[in-house]
Design goal:
Layout: H1 8-22, H2 24-74, H3 84-97, E1 104-109, E2 112-113, H4 125-132, E3 138-144, E4 147-157, E5 164-174, H5 176-226, H6 241-300, H7 306-337, E6 345-348, H8 349-359, E7 366-370, E8 375-378, H9 380-397, E9 402-410, E10 413-419, H10 453-463, E11 467-472, E12 478-485
Parallel strand pairs: 7-9
Antiparallel strand pairs: 1-2, 1-5, 3-4, 4-5, 6-8, 9-10, 10-12, 11-12
Helix pairs in contact: 2-3, 2-5, 5-6, 6-7, 8-9, 9-10
Length: 493
């Protein structure tokens, strides 16, 4: 039987309920209630024990005193030695005197009970031994037929010399009223437990609120700090641990603000320095390039001796590298300053890639697999820079042949792959291939570039709202994958 899907609103409520139950507030309230419940139960147990003992002890003391008083009042009139009839009459008199307590009395002379006495008294041997042999009063609480009783044994002394006689009296006193009082105490404690917990819930909520309010403010302040609002501070109240935590947070935020401000200042100075130096170098480099072009023509025409021609070619190559580095630095400075802008047009992507390869005479060194009729809103100049940097990197550091593939758009995005046939990228180097000035000398041949080509390619792809990934192909070689939207996030300026 198919199971009906859970409604999103119901699932959201369940998620919120689980978060609430697992939250600090719920744990604080439960802990407070547990402490209150344990305290209430402990107090109730101690009170019950003390009250029960007090009730039973008072009842047994009163019963013993009453029995002793009745014995002292009636025993002097009892003949010595008493007959069976005398013992029975003595027991009946004690019974009648204890009607208020509803006790049952048995009189024993020389260990023989009076006839007609209540057999349910059933005095235990230990209690009888204490009374008849040791001549001391004794009592014991017992339970018979599910009811509590108090058994009392009392030795009778002679009136003229207070010496122990051979007469003993045993009484069975019911404790039903006392047990009823104890049970009433238990019932009252049970009835009061829920109101106590309900009342404890109120201070628990206030205590949880008092603890969680600073914690919530701390969380909100940390969130604002994470958003870059470094001037966030907490209001400090009191002198407890939470107030100390707020002070520590404020100190941390102040130091963080100072450090970030210093880093931003240093970064801004370094960017401005790189931009200023690059800008100042453009004019002399343009003049040097013009001179080296003339010298290159003379070297090609054979007008220079071989050593001079070789030196001229070397100077020309290094001047070209320096010029490209300056251009790269200028481009990076524009990205850092946020001055890089897109000028997008409706571009035939396959044709734009072919023009990039043709402009650099790479047609014979690069194989292409380009899907036809793929058009997108892109900045053609920046796309040219991306393709040129990736293909140039593959030719210089990878192995030929280099392959460029353009896939038909899926989900509103197109993909361009640039793959080489080289040794691939070292896994330790892979996370850093797009870092500025990073050269993987240990993984590939020595680089002749500035170390900015892949970083500039990444910035240009990001400017289009796309992605650029580097990986190793299972068949060997490195693969760079460009993902671009069919429509850029910015329109033509």
């Amino acid at each position: 039987m198919p199971v009906a899907p859970v409604a999103p609103a119901a699932e959201t409520r369940r998620t919120r309920l689980r978060q609430l139950l697992r939250g600090l507030r719920a744990r604080l309230v439960v802990a407070f209630l547990l402490v209150a419940a344990v305290s209430a139960l402990t107090t109730a147990a101690l009170t019950y024990r003390e009250a029960r003992n007090a009730i039973l002890e008072r009842s047994q003391d009163t019963a013993i005193n009453d029995l002793r008083a009745q014995i002292n009042s009636l025993a002097p009139d009892l003949p010595v030695p008493p007959s069976r009839a005398d013992l029975e009459e003595f027991a009946r008199q004690l019974d009648r005197s204890g009607k208020a307590r509803d006790w049952d009395v048995e009189a024993d002379y020389e260990g023989v009970p009076s006839e007609g006495s209540d057999a349910n008294v059933a005095v235990p041997d230990a209690l009888r031994k204490s009374v008849e042999e040791r001549h001391v009063p004794a009592f014991q609480r017992v339970e018979r037929d599910g009811e509590p009783w108090l058994l009392i044994g009392m030795p009778v002394t002679r009136a003229h010399d207070h010496a122990p006689s051979r007469l003993s009296v045993y009484a069975r006193v019911p404790l039903r009223a006392e047990e009823a009082n104890v049970e009433e105490l238990v019932s009252a404690a049970q009835r009061g437990a829920l109101p106590v917990l309900a009342l404890a819930l109120v201070p628990a909520l206030f205590a949880a609120r008092g603890v969680l309010r600073p914690v919530r403010k701390l969380r909100q302040a940390a969130g604002r700090l994470a958003e870059g609002k470094l001037d966030t501070r907490l209001e400090v109240k009191g002198g407890d641990e939470l107030a100390e935590l707020s002070r520590t947070f404020n100190d941390m935020a102040a130091h963080l603000e100072e450090n970030v401000a210093e880093l931003r200042r240093l970064e801004s100075n370094s960017r401005r320095f790189a931009a200023d130096v690059s800008h100042e170098l453009r004019t002399p480099l343009a003049a040097m390039s013009a001179v080296t072009d003339v010298l290159d023509e003379d070297a090609e025409a054979g007008e220079l001796d071989p050593d001079t021609a070789s030196a001229v070619r070397l100077i020309s190559q290094e001047t070209g590298k320096l010029a490209r580095m300056v251009e790269d630095l200028m481009e990076v400075s524009r990205f850092d300053a946020g001055a890089a802008a897109l000028h997008v047009y409706d571009v035939d992507v396959a044709e734009a890639i072919r023009k990039t390869l043709q402009a650099r005479a790479w047609q014979d060194r690069v194989t292409t697999d380009l899907a036809a009729d793929v058009r997108a809103r892109l900045d053609p100049r920046r796309l040219d820079v991306v393709i040129a940097n990736l293909v140039g990197n593959a030719l210089h550091h990878g192995g030929e042949p280099v392959a460029v593939r353009l896939r038909a758009p899926e989900d509103g995005r197109l993909e361009i792959e640039v793959a080489d046939n080289g040794p691939g990228i070292d896994p330790e180097v892979l996370p850093h291939v797009f870092d500025r000035f990073y050269k993987a000398d240990s993984a590939r041949a020595r680089s002749e570039g500035s170390g900015l080509g892949l970083a500039i390619a990444m910035e240009n792809v990001r400017l289009h709202g796309g992605t650029l990934r580097a990986a190793n192909s299972p068949d060997g070689g490195a693969v760079f994958t460009i993902g671009l939207p069919l429509r850029s996030g910015e329109e033509e300026a």
